[in-house]
Amino acid sequence: xxxxxxxxxxxxxxxxxxxxxxxxxxxxxxxxxxxxxxxxxxxxxxxxxxxxxxxxxxxxxxxxxxxxxxxxxxxxxxxxxxxxxxxxxxxxxxxxxxxxxxxxxxxxxxxxxxxxxxxxxxxxxxxxx
Length: 129
Fold this sequence. Notes:
Elements: H1 3-17, H2 21-48, H3 54-77, H4 87-97, H5 100-109, H6 114-128
Helix pairs in contact: 1-2, 2-5, 2-6, 3-4, 4-6
């Protein structure tokens, strides 16, 4: 297993083991930050490469939505969602908030540090729930 893959497995396990919903969100924000620190620049280049890489980007975004949907389901199983929460809608919201485009806008475009992004994301996710 590659180092990034091993890191993702460890981070995911820690999120699943943690009982407190706020801690889950902070760990998830750290997980998202870690991914974006390694891949956001590549994602930005691919978006400019033209239609020939469109399928690659679509696949990556579908897989990201699958992961976010699984995280929302886990939050529901952990009792962290309100009774009126629509999991599909919440997954869409988290997918948008945790996307590489917004990370790049805030870090490269607005000068935020990765740590500031992570803290903002955790707080925003908590407020969204």
